[in-house]
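Support case: alpha-D-glucopyranose complex. Customer-provided input:
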Amino acid sequence: MDRVDLEDGARKILLSNLRQGVADWNGCEYRFVCPSLTGYPFQWFWDSCFHAIALLHLDMDQAKAELRTLMSGALPNGFMPHIIFWEMEKQPDFLSRNIVGQAGDPHYSSTIQPPIIAYAVERVYRATGDEEFRNEALPVLVNFYRWLRQVRDPDRDGLIAVIQPEEAGTDCSPKYDAALGLTDLSNHGFIAALGKIYDAYEPHRGDDQKILELDLFHFEDVLVNSIYGMGMRSLARLLGDSPEADEFNREADRTTGALLAKCWDEEAGAFFDLSGVAENPVKVTTISSLMPLILDDLPRSIVERLIEDWVSSPQHFWTPYPLPSVPVSDSKFMPGNPGGFIWRGPSWMNTNWFLSHALRRHGYLELADTIVTKSHECIERSGFREYYHPYTAEGLGARDFGWSTLILDM
Ligand code: GLC
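Agent response - structure generated as follows:
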């Protein structure tokens, strides 16, 4: 598949998944790409950021519209939702099939997703040079990253906490099994375990401080915090020379410092999440353990250990179609069709996008190129799917999946 075919394929998906109109509930014009017409018909936070980045290669106006639509969902206190339910009336049964945390307003979730938005805005701004776009985005971004710090970092250590697994975007990852008390290792078991947490949260939805105090699911997640740090660096660059830029650079330093001080495990040579207010390290290696590689200020010795011991090791992440979401060495590694029990083995395009760029920046050009070539092969063989079998490149999960078009930016 040459570049033209790849772009044609991506364009087809991004156009057919396009949703636009004027919402009757807030009067806002919306124009965004939904992740998939079948399973995910609304606007998901980090998906939209990935779509905007892919769209930079096809349609800059749509890239801006994607992020403007996402930012129009920000609340005055800074919070930005994980899902915005534009055109809910066309999908009335979605909420009967899925559980979503909501606090009163049925048009958006009261949960977050990995805060990659400042990076996406920075990319769109750099590609378009559109000052108006940057000026519109800045107050939303400043409020959002401050909200994360003020509300989601109750112990003020520089690491923000998620209150349920879907907030990290890696829903059923085995790293959450113990915290969820998961014994039935299936999607059904996962939903049942999650349901208990939802029930306990129900009276407090929207009051994240209270929810964090309940200490039922309180994860200082390595993937989320790596992206949080990366986002704050972008925000600081977007802000230019200013006290606010200093504020976010300082906070990004604190996040890297805390990841190193609290999440890095010297013996295992990997980063682990911290569970609960007590911050117990969750010693399960997943793709998330590698994500601090996206931080440019990671010490060289740690970069080398992560890449040499884990990424490029066939016993762990170096499968024929890397990088699996769980290393093959883990007893819970599940490479095939998981029946909705996701993030437990297959390779995903968004983590390949993050990590191929990270590897390149750290000087591992050949490994980065191989990840890109293999990702390309997955799409050539199986189309733009939600995730891929790490041994065969078989396409799995949703079809015509938006963020797999990130291949255009790899
Ligand atoms: C799944 C993924 C999540 C993604 C959503 C929409 O829930 O785990 O990361 O945002 O689908 O694509």
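The radius of gyration is 20 Å.

Case will auto-close in a few days if no follow-up is received.
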